[in-house]
Structures are given as structure tokens and as C-alpha cells.
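DUF1349 domain-containing protein (Curtobacterium salicis), 195 aa
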Amino acid sequence: MSDIDWSIGTWTNPPAAVSVADDGMRVTAVEESDAWRTTSYGFVHDTEHALLAPFAQDTAMEVSFHLDFSAQFDQAGIFVKVDDSTWTKAGVERSDDQDSLGAVVTRGVSDWSLAPVPEWHGRLVTIRASRSGDALTVRARVDDEPWRLVRVAPLDPDAEVGAGPMCCAPSRDDLTVHFTAWRTGAADASLHPDD
């Protein structure tokens, strides 16, 4: 994997503050920032902070960050965007007082999946999105533990796609996420490790 320079990305929505140093990028989210379309809640939120760079077919992108959430719906991870109604966000979100690994896949309307990972709190999380064929494959891990499969979602192989680090703070004004890495490389060779 090769590092992506923080300066080449373009924000979908500017954060409250951004600082870049030798140890990564710190992003402070605007209160009520979020990404969601319609399902169950009835609203459309498109105020996420996602730093996007081109995400080519047959490549993968990884984002790493320190997990230190405390408020309802604090979230960080990777955002993969085709257009305003076709996108995926994947990472860790604090929901009902626990950190959970999950993804929101949006194709006109959003869906949401979560799996609790309380043991990840205070550790380094990496989210990996891999683009191959007609699929986006999302994996995640904490520290140097094995990768976990999070989601396989459809993604048009001919679409122009942007992807990169993302954070949102739907319920507070002082969430700062410390991203430590943004990398790109070859797409995963297969969906399953034994293939």
C-alpha cells in the first residue's frame, strides 16, 4: 500500500477544523453532520465530512484512525461516493453506548448494518474498501489483528468514484478524530481468504 497525501483530497463538506502533522490528520466535525437517506427516519442528511480522492477500478483504499468515541452516533471510517444518492460509508459508529462496526449502503435510500466491537475502544482501527468487478468489498481490523469482512455491496465497474476518510458527529460539536493513515494499493485478490 502507498500513502495518499492528505492535501490531494476534496471535502464533501468542510469540517469545523482540520490539522495535519507528522502523525496524521485531526478532523473536528460540525455538530449534526451525518450521511443518511430516508429509510426509517424519513430525513436526508448529506453533511458528512469526507475527504475524497479518485478511487479507480481494481484498487483498494484504507483509512486508519484512533477509536475514542463517547457520544451517540460518533462515527469515522471510509466514504465511497458515486453521487449524492449512491454511496457507502463504513467504519465504527457509537450507537446505544457501544462502539459498533458497520456500514451504510445507499442506492437511493440507505440501509444500515452494525456489529458491536466494544473491545476495539481506544485502539487503532483500519477500514479497507476494495473495488473489483461489480463489487465493493469492505473489511476492517483493529491494530494488527486479522481482517474481518464487513460488507459486499454492488458498485458499477464503470462509475467514477471518490473515496477517503470520513467522520460525522450527529449529536455533539466537539468530536475530533485522529486519522493516522490513508493508503491505496491493489484490490483484494478474492472475496474469501482460501480462494
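The mean pLDDT is 96. The chain has one domain: 2-186. ok done for today
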